[in-house]
Write a structure and sequence with these properties.
alpha/beta, 13 strands, Rossmann fold, 9 helices, 253 residues
């Protein structure tokens, strides 16, 4: 494969940094683009967007998910990129939260752009720098794990997601949405037991859960109302694209 110039928006983030690492190992030039950057790239063969926020904290979902994608699409047209790869999220089609609606809006912008594209929808991503499973690990060290919702999840390794993104950049995924989850579907109580065997799951009563959401704006570690809605959903997939592509998909440990 010839050397490519690849723009990675969010290239210093949790998923983006892994993507950049893999691309550089393959000998490609990477341009890490962040939202505060003023200089506009004048050349790129591929654009990869790994930007995403889980709660509005100084930046809105519209700004992070929709406005940025609209700008990147315009740039992709101008540079005539050969592929536009976008990291979205599993379950956005439910459209029950502002987060999901903004993510789905971004997907539709890409799909109607006329650019060759691949959209990756991962379930909960785990890894050294994740903000979900690692938070659960800390909770489990108390010996108890608060179960806030009845949803299910399919934790997937950040390495698996990054390798899928890179495969899409190399045109192994074309003009479609790919969902990706890990090998195991589990409830949050099962997830807690996986990362901390023997931990005691405690179902939190709904009135207390609602009260926690009210204080989420002040206590940033508490889940917002929207996050609780998503925790209650079935965040799983039967998509086997990673298997067909031969990408390693390890279990959560």
């Amino acid at each position: 494969m010839r050397k490519l110039t690849i723009l990675v928006a969010g290239g210093t983030g949790f998923v983006g940094s892994k993507v950049v690492e893999l691309l550089r190992k393959d000998g490609h030039e990477t341009i890490i683009y962040h939202r505060g950057q003023r200089a506009v790239p004048t050349h790129a063969d591929i654009i990869i967007n790994c930007v995403g926020i889980i709660r509005e904290d100084g930046e809105t979902f519209k700004e992070a998910h929709v406005d940025l994608v609209r700008w990147l699409v315009r740039l992709g047209r101008k540079l005539r990129v050969r592929q536009f790869v976008h990291v979205s999220a599993l379950g956005v089609e439910h459209e029950r939260t502002a987060y999901q609606r903004s993510k789905l809006h971004a997907e539709r912008i890409i799909q109607s752009s006329g650019l060759p594209y691949a959209i990756i929808r991962p379930s909960m991503i785990f890894g050294d720098r994740d903000r979900s499973v690692n938070l659960f690990r800390k909770m489990c060290r108390t010996g108890f794990f608060p179960v806030l919702a009845k949803g299910t999840v399919q934790p997937v390794s950040v390495d698996t997601v990054a390798r899928l993104v890179v495969a899409a950049a190399y045109l192994r995924v074309r003009d479609r949405i790919v969902e990706v989850g890990g090998p195991d579907v589990m409830t949050y109580a099962q997830l807690a037991d996986r990362i901390h065997p023997g931990v005691r799951p405690v179902r939190v009563p709904r009135p207390i859960v609602r009260l926690m959401a009210l204080f989420a704006r002040v206590i940033r570690t508490l889940p917002t109302k929207e996050q609780l809605i998503m925790l209650g959903q079935q965040n799983t997939t039967g998509d086997r694209t990673v298997v067909r592509l031969g990408i390693d998909n390890p279990r959560l440990r």
